[in-house]
Design a protein that fits this description.
By secondary structure, the protein is of the alpha+beta class. The protein has 2 domains: about 40 residues, no CATH class; about 70 residues, no CATH class. Helices cover about 45% and strands about 15% of the residues. It contains 4 helices and 5 strands; from the N terminus they run βββββαααα. Strand 2 and strand 3 form a beta hairpin.
């Protein structure tokens, strides 16, 4: 089953590392096979990664966009998740970070991003 993206005029998104911008009209894009895709609203710029949760999100986002599940990107994500865990004030927050860590370890990076997004404030995600 294809992934259907309904795009706003001028909306930017990333597909397998390529930044793509929709034209001046609404559009629909059907992805027939598996691809790494992020919409403009889900992209965080490096300068906006100014909290533990944002740094963790940024590291996981980089892993997802690059298609890497190990190496330097993994080490950075592990460090940022450890820092996030150290700052947790409740059991629910710790459980959320543990779930994110499990997703990263198993290579389910999109789910890790989704879970990490819940820890971010609504104003912390930037745009391309």
């Amino acid at each position: 089953m294809p992934l259907k993206l309904s795009l706003k005029p001028g909306e930017t998104f990333v597909v397998n590392g390529a930044v793509v911008r929709n034209g001046d009209r609404r559009g629909v894009l059907l992805l027939e096979n598996q691809a790494r895709i992020l919409r403009e609203k889900d992209i965080l710029h490096p300068e906006d990664a100014n909290s533990s949760a944002a740094r963790a999100y940024f590291c996981i986002m980089q892993m997802y966009l690059l298609g890497e599940s190990d190496g330097p990107a993994y080490a950075q994500a592990a460090e940022s998740l450890a820092a996030l865990m150290a700052g947790c004030e409740s059991g629910d927050e710790r459980d959320a970070v543990l779930d994110i860590s499990a997703d990263v370890t198993s290579g389910n990076l999109y789910r890790a991003l989704s879970r990490c997004r819940r820890l971010l404030g609504a104003d912390e995600l930037g745009v391309v």
